[in-house]
Design a protein that fits this description.
- The relative contact order is 0.13.
- By secondary structure, this protein is of the alpha/beta class.
- The chain folds into two domains: about 200 residues, NAD(P)-binding Rossmann-like Domain (Rossmann fold, 3-Layer(aba) Sandwich); about 90 residues, UDP-galactose 4-epimerase, domain 1, CATH 3.90.25.
- α1 links the parallel β1 and β2.
- The strands form four sheets. It has a seven-stranded parallel beta sheet with strand order 3-2-1-4-5-6-11, with helices on both faces. The chain has a two-stranded parallel ribbon with strand order 7-10.
- The protein starts with a strand and ends with a helix.
- The model has no long low-confidence stretch (mean pLDDT about 100).
- α2 runs parallel beside α4.
- The chain is globular and about 60 Å long.
- Bound molecules: NADPH dihydro-nicotinamide-adenine-dinucleotide phosphate (NDP) and guanosine-5'-diphosphate-rhamnose.
- NADPH dihydro-nicotinamide-adenine-dinucleotide phosphate (NDP) binds next to α1 and β5.
Length: about 325
């Protein structure tokens, strides 16, 4: 019998890469999708015929109990979230309902239907926020700096709590920023790769950005979903930091991207206050020693390679759309 996994957030960046990985590993993949007035399956269109997509919402526990009862997965990956940090200030309550309380709802749905299910929670380096030590690892205290970060801290601790209260196989992956050509257009690296491509093709002249000095540990989403799967294959549930161990500023990322397209960053980047945040996370850099040693996780993509791949992909995409 093939193993069965259920993914919440399958229509997102990570959901699409994780679904590909699980299919390649011989899984039957159940994707929970929320109702919307227009279909948004772009990221999974190429594998849709191999997936079972079922309706459900992380805001609605009954819908998840229903899905779990009907499809009986052995593994559940909770990727659903309001995941854009900036939006979490304008929609703090929604962010809390989805990104924090949503985790309790799915954990409880699992507890009620089949507590043997192995559970993955998509925790985030945003929980470290105003960092208390550098680099950040599993034992680093949290100090979130946005409603999103606060919600993720809740999601993280409720996962730990269900593990300790009910002996569930629940693990939390503290993932640092990871990107790809499938990243949403509002996130910085994709905004830059897409903006550079538009300028290259003569569709735009400028790219409006916020804080160029923030530093992040950026990796490739395709590498990071391997860590999610590996965590659920361990005998013991645990929490792991997943990161490259390198940090770069927004400015450096822009330089690599503009350079790839043969353009000068200084000619096109404009600072626009609307993209500054009420509280910033200045520096993130992770120490993934535990993930390397315990689950054998390695990153394969370099920072430059990632940014260049995203710029190339956006130039190809826009060129094909304008032809
Ligand atoms: P995306 O924003 O690309 O995807 C989020 C997914 O959540 C989408 O499929 C979205 O569905 C779904 N979703 C949102 N609200 C609900 C809801 N009420 N019910 C059910 N599904 C919902 O995020 P990523 O793929 O980048 O990230 C995946 C997870 O990992 C998120 O939890 C994120 O917070 C976390 N994370 C991401 C990192 C990164 O760098 N990418 C780093 C650390 C953590 P729809 O398509 O319908 O909007
Ligand atoms: P982040 O990602 O907030 O780290 O959260 P994002 O790419 O949005 O921002 C990275 C950094 O770039 C700075 N920045 C800008 N950001 C955006 N989006 N737009 C701009 O114009 C801009 N200018 C500068 C930001 O201030 C920030 O410092 C991502 C999300 O995927 C979360 O869900 C995830 O948990 C964390 O990564 C780890």
């Amino acid at each position: 019998m093939p193993r069965r996994a259920m993914i919440t957030g399958i229509t997102g960046q990570d959901g699409s890469y994780l679904a590909e990985l699980l299919l390649a590993n011989g899984y039957e993949v159940i994707g929970m999708v929320r109702r919307s007035s227009t279909v948004n399956f772009e990221r999974i269109a190429h594998i849709q015929d191999q997936l079972t997509l079922v309706p459900g919402d992380i805001l609605d526990e009954v819908s998840m109990i229903q899905v779990l009862r009907e499809h009986r997965p052995q593994e559940v990956y909770n990727l659903a979230a309001q995941s854009f940090v900036q939006t979490s200030w304008s929609q703090p309550v929604l962010t809390g309902e989805v990104t924090a309380m949503g985790v309790t709802r799915i954990l409880d749905a699992i507890r009620l239907t089949d507590p043997e299910i192995r559970f993955y929670q998509a925790s985030s380096s945003e929980m470290f926020g105003k960092v208390q030590e550098t680099p950040q690892l599993e034992s680093t205290p949290f100090y979130p700096r946005s409603p999103y970060g606060v919600a993720k801290v809740y999601g993280h601790w409720i996962t730990v709590n269900y593990r300790e209260s009910y002996h569930m196989h629940a693990s939390s992956g503290i993932l640092f920023n990871h990107e790809s050509p499938r990243r949403g257009l509002e996130f910085l690296p994709r905004k830059v790769s897409h903006g550079v491509a538009r300028i290259k093709l003569g569709l735009d002249k400028e790219l409006r950005l916020g804080n160029l000095d923030a530093k992040r540990d950026w990796g490739y989403a395709g590498d990071y979903v391997r860590a999610m799967w590996a965590m659920l294959q361990q005998d013991e549930p645990q929490d792991y930091v997943v990161a490259t161990g390198e940090t770069h500023s927004v400015r450096e990322l822009c330089e690599v991207a503009f350079d790839r397209a043969g353009l000068e960053m200084a000619d096109h980047v404009v600072i626009d206050e609307q993209f500054l945040r009420p509280a910033e996370v200045d520096l993130l850099v992770g120490d993934a020693t535990k993930a390397r040693e315990k689950i054998g996780w390695e990153t394969e993509m370099s920072f430059e390679g990632l940014v260049q791949m995203m710029v190339d992909a956006d130039i190809d995409l826009l060129a094909s759309q304008t032809r």
